[in-house]
């Protein structure tokens, strides 16, 4: 079932999926399901199928799908469980543009050919989805734990054999250099742009305040080490984040006394909240929709990778190339807040939405916020219920009032959060 050059591929369909009529979308899904069933019946190796390159053509008003290249044939028959497993891996990537109904329609079209009843079909989809998600979370957790257990107290990717003393000296020179620039100086975190061993970097220094906090890190990994492990997991799972270059930590009496996380400096880039303030009101409806989908994709990329970010306010999201829409990218920072292998529970998702909603301020209209929720409902249908929307608004108001109260207190009365 090899086609000559076709005018449309699955990859090109993704970019215009939401703008296509519902009937046409169902036609493409049915054609893709028929192709998958035919390849499965002929014992082709489905793991070798690149869905992005699947080609479509319309013949007498009927859409047909073709495999881009010849697939190898397996000697043993592929079980239905293996088929569903491979299918759901693809569905996890397609959740951003496929609605729950369209996912169910695709599976229904595929399994109806084998006479599978509706109850079994729903159960199969639910079990296969959970199975795949568990595998993804387990892989993310494994990568994170491996990086977290790095035996040394320092790591510099450019020079793996560098000693602790050599890196300590280089870090001290970079931090004390007159060329270094303080980007942020808070009570718990200092961020410095510096030249470290010939590289333009951002050094994030974590400040421990008081004996109680120091004692806590006697049994916990330092925030710098956690950020390093999270960056390793995110890069491996294709989640965008600044390139990690190394970390460094110093202990006194078995307790972390100082720790640094080092990434490559990204230029040009600005925090997402500043990008919204500067550009969003100037955008027309189409440009706003494109950015909204980029923001949703950035948020869901963490979930699809089996990770959870505990602080998704827009100051923790960088916009790279903010003035060039064709090159624009969104990258997550503040990686010590990442949990690997965490399930996206309703409480966690709502908490993330409250953090994002509060950090948007008044630059984003209520209609655009609701459009974001409706897009997210393709993955989590429950987010557009009246109860959840009311809770997001209530929690956002409470969070902003608490933040305002904290900022209006005298410096000495403020609590470290």
Characterization of the model:
The longest helix is centred in the N-terminal third of the chain and has 31 residues. Helix 3 crosses helix 5, helix 5 packs across helix 8 and helix 11 crosses helix 13. Helices cover 47% and strands 17% of the residues. The chain is globular, with a radius of gyration of 25 Å. It has a six-stranded antiparallel beta sheet, with helices on both faces. Strand 5 and strand 6 form a beta hairpin. It folds into three domains: 132 residues, no CATH class; 115 residues, 2-Layer Sandwich (Phosphorylase Kinase, domain 1), CATH 3.30.200; 145 residues, Transferase(Phosphotransferase), domain 1 (Orthogonal Bundle). By secondary structure, the protein is of the alpha+beta class.
Name the assembly state: single chain
Distance separating the two termini: 60 Å
Q: List how many beta strands DSSP finds.
A: 14
- Biggest sheet character: 6 strands, antiparallel
What is the CATH level 1 assignment of the largest domain?
Mainly Alpha
Sum up the structure in keywords.
globular; 417 residues; Transferase(Phosphotransferase), domain 1; 6-stranded antiparallel beta sheet; alpha+beta; Phosphorylase Kinase, domain 1; disordered C terminus; 3 domains; 47% helix; 3-stranded antiparallel beta sheet; single chain
């Amino acid at each position: 079932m090899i086609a000559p050059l076709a005018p449309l591929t699955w990859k090109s369909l993704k970019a215009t999926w939401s703008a296509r009529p519902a009937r046409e979308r169902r036609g493409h899904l049915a054609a893709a399901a028929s192709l998958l069933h035919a390849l499965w019946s002929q014992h082709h190796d489905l793991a070798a199928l690149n869905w992005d390159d699947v080609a479509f053509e319309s013949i007498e008003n009927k859409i047909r799908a073709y495999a881009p290249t010849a697939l190898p044939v397996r000697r043993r028959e592929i079980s239905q469980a293996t088929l569903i497993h491979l299918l759901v891996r693809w569905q996890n990537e397609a959740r951003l543009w496929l609605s729950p109904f369209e996912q169910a329609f695709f599976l229904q079209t595929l399994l109806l050919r084998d006479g599978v009843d509706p109850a079994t079909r729903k159960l199969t989809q639910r079990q296969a989805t959970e199975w795949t998600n568990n595998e993804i979370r387990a892989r993310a957790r494994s990568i994170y734990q491996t990086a977290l257990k790095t035996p040394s107290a320092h790591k510099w990717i450019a020079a793996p054999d560098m000693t602790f003393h050599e890196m300590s000296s280089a870090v001290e020179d970079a931090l004390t250099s007159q060329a270094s620039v303080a980007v942020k100086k808070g009570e718990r975190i200092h961020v410095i742009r510096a030249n470290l061993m010939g590289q333009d970097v951002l050094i994030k220094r974590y400040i421990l305040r008081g004996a109680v906090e120091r004692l806590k890190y006697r049994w916990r990994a330092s925030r710098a080490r956690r950020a390093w492990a999270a960056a390793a997991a995110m890069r491996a799972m294709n989640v965008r984040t600044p390139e990690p270059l190394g970390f460094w930590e110093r202990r006194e009496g078995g307790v972390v006394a100082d720790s640094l996380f080092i990434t490559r400096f990204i230029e040009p880039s600005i925090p997402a909240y500043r990008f919204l303030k500067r550009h969003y009101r100037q955008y027309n409806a189409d440009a706003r929709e494109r950015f909204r989908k980029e923001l949703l994709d950035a948020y869901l990329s963490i979930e699809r990778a089996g990770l959870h970010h505990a602080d998704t306010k827009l100051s923790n999201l960088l916009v790279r190339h903010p003035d060039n829409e064709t090159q624009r990218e969104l990258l997550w920072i503040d990686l010590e807040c990442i949990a690997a292998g965490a399930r996206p529970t309703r409480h966690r998702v709502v908490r993330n939405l409250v953090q994002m909603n509060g950090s948007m301020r008044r630059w984003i209209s209520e209609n655009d916020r609701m459009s974001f929720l409706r897009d997210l409902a393709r993955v989590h249908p429950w987010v557009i219920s009246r109860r959840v929307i009311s809770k997001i608004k209530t929690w956002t108001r409470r969070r902003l009032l608490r933040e305002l109260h904290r900022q209006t207190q005298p410096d000495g009365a403020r609590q470290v959060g």
